[in-house]
TrEMBL record:
Residues 1-31 are annotated as: Disordered. The keyword rRNA processing does not apply. This is Tat pathway signal sequence. Pfam families: UstYa (PF11807).
Amino acid sequence: MFSSKPNGYRPIQDDTTQDAKSDSDSGKRGSSARRCLHIAQHRPGISIAILALFLVANVILFAYSMVNLQNIQNSHETDAKSRYLHHELNLDLKKTSSYSLLLDLIDLKPSIKIINGALRDNTSLWRMAPSPEVDAAWDRISAEDLQIITVSSSDIVKSGKDPSHSVKAPSSWGFGNDAYIAQVEVFHQIHCLNELRKELFYDYYYHNAPRNELHISHKTHCIHILLQSLMCNPDVGIITHNWIYDEKYSDPKTRPFPDFSVAKKCRDFDSILRWLEEDGGVKKFSSKFPMEYPPGAFVLPGDGYSVAGGKAF
């Protein structure tokens, strides 16, 4: 590597001189990485010093990471508290959820429930063929009855929307000048699920009418809404498998089958529905729809979707 040793050069250790010469003769095999390893092996003091520095650096990095993590957690908690009046109600949900005034009004008290994942269980009302009873049940938990609530301009801003683009509740409703009409998202999602259910019984609900462009657009809109909701809140629970035997299957009749009846930590949907029906909803005003356009109100072109910031699916 070197043609001669510089003045004052002293080998690190006598028994390394031959190794250094061999390195010089062997080209790439005499790399600096190998020499460092050689030094560490023959000079325990240096090896211990390097190890100590490495450990200290890792401790510092770990401490820095923990401080940053705590700052992030504190910022989420501060953000949640700054947007809500009843800070402690649903605090954990507020830290990980988009803004909703309902988180300040309803105790969603998450609890463990077992999902009914049976493949052939038509005892559930939600899986039954159409009937007045079935339709009434679906209408109650979806947007079919137009479950309108009112929100303030502050609620709209915290939700990432512009109050100047939103429809105000008519003054005749008696909610004041800072009241805007809104719906709770879950009921629209269930409405979309109900629309897909109706496709299974098309003749019953649509009397064999042809599927026009609006009908198809409505259904594909619903599919997209549900897909985006699932992708936005991906469920990472696990589905185990059981050995089953079923005569209905072709051979092999004994096979592993996924157990879809899994345990979930569920928000209290019934409390949301109860609040909507007893306290929060103003669907008694649904007979007033369609409302008259107030002169001067902002009008969006086309379908009128005012998109908040963020990347779309």
